[in-house]
Write a structure and sequence with these properties.
The protein has 174 residues and is α/β, with parallel strands linked by helices. The chain has 5 helices and 8 strands. The longest helix is centred in the middle third of the chain and has 11 residues.
Length: 174
């Protein structure tokens, strides 16, 4: 999916298609249960439905930038478990560069989300593999590889210094 040109113009994102957005952030699988009401501590309530959906602050930022027309490279981590593929499916489908995503021992990050009938929620986040990711752990050689065509280390450095553009987002994993 690509944002229509008129919407890009209204949002003031005209130049976004020329940017490479680099996102350091969390990649989760959201486990969502619908309930009539959020349970009190120690209480069990019956749910009416359950879905899994890819999530995570970093993954959501990467998808938003991609949908706005930017080329995107994601840096993060998933666990060596069955949730990893599900957590990455939307990023793959959107054409996001996932060469910065590593697989680590342990579990993929999850969010356990209860949503009640009025729409309120209660969320427990288990960071899992996300806890292993820090921007400083990525070697300068990995970060200096051309991101897209003529974008190189000097462009990444400049974006980091400015921090006022959407060239780098979510510098810490959530």
């Amino acid at each position: 999916w690509k944002m229509p040109a008129d919407r890009v113009a209204r949002a003031g994102l005209r130049g976004l298609a020329a940017l490479m957005v680099v996102v350091f952030g969390s990649i989760n699988l959201d486990l969502v249960a619908r309930v009539a009401r959020i349970p009190a501590p120690g209480e069990t309530v019956a749910g009416s439905s359950f879905v899994t959906t890819p999530g995570g602050k970093g993954a959501n930022q990467a998808l938003a930038a991609r949908h706005a027309g930017a080329a995107v490279r994601m840096y993060g981590a998933v666990g060596a478990d069955p949730f990893a593929a599900q957590a990455l499916v939307n990023l793959h489908a959107a054409g996001i560069d996932l060469t910065g995503v590593v697989t680590v021992d342990g579990s993929t990050g999850v969010a356990l989300i209860d949503v009640d009938d009025p729409g309120e929620n209660a969320i427990v986040v288990v960071p899992g593999a996300n806890a292993a990711v820090r921007a400083a752990k990525h070697s300068p050689q990995r970060l200096s590889r051309p991101l897209r065509g003529d974008v190189a280390e000097r462009d990444v450095d400049a974006a980091e210094r400015r921090r006022d553009r959407t060239a780098l987002a979510g510098l810490q994993a959530q």
